[in-house]
Structures are given as structure tokens and as C-alpha cells.
Amino acid sequence: MLTRLIVDLYVWLIEISLWFLLLISSVAGYHYTVPILNAAGLIPKNQTAWEIFGALVFASATFLVSAVLTGPFLVLVDIRKSVRALEMKGRDYGNRVPSADLRDRREPSI
Fold it and tell me: Which class for 60: exposed (0-12), middle (13-18), buried (19 or more C-beta within 10 A)?
């Protein structure tokens, strides 16, 4: 019971932190895109469009990096939930395995 609570809480913390990172990166992209372009020698004519573009690019890059870093853990949690669902389904059969799964796997013989 406590282990499930810890895993569920950890997933929620990861999800909240991912949304928070997306928000922070969008704001940073909005504020720093035009100064970065000016420092690079490019002078944008429409600053608002570049600020919005920077917010989208920064958020997209943050999303991709976060997906790579946290994706494996979230996949493991999803696998854990799937296994738990299969266990509960097995309990619905009264701890019996359906007849289709009763076949023994034997070594092939001649």
C-alpha cells in the first residue's frame, strides 16, 4: 500500500515539475530570444513575433529533453500498472488461469 502511494506521488511530482519546466522555459524563451538575436548581429524587425517564436522553441526543446530524461521512469510505472491490472484480472477468475493459458510449454522432441 505504501509503495504504491510513493510511486504515485513520485509520478505526480514528476508531472508537476515537467509542467513547471515548460512554463519557465517558455518565459525564458520569450524574454531572451530578442537579446540573443541582437547579440548574434541579427536585428529582428518584428520583436513580438520573435519573442513568441522563442517561447515555442524553448518550450519544445525543454519538452524533448525532459521526455528523454524522465521517459524511462514513466514507462516503468506504466508497465507496473499494466502488470497490476493483469494481476487483478487473474483474481477475477478466482485465482484460476483461463483454459487457453493452461498449456504446458515442453521441449520439442522427435
Answer: middle
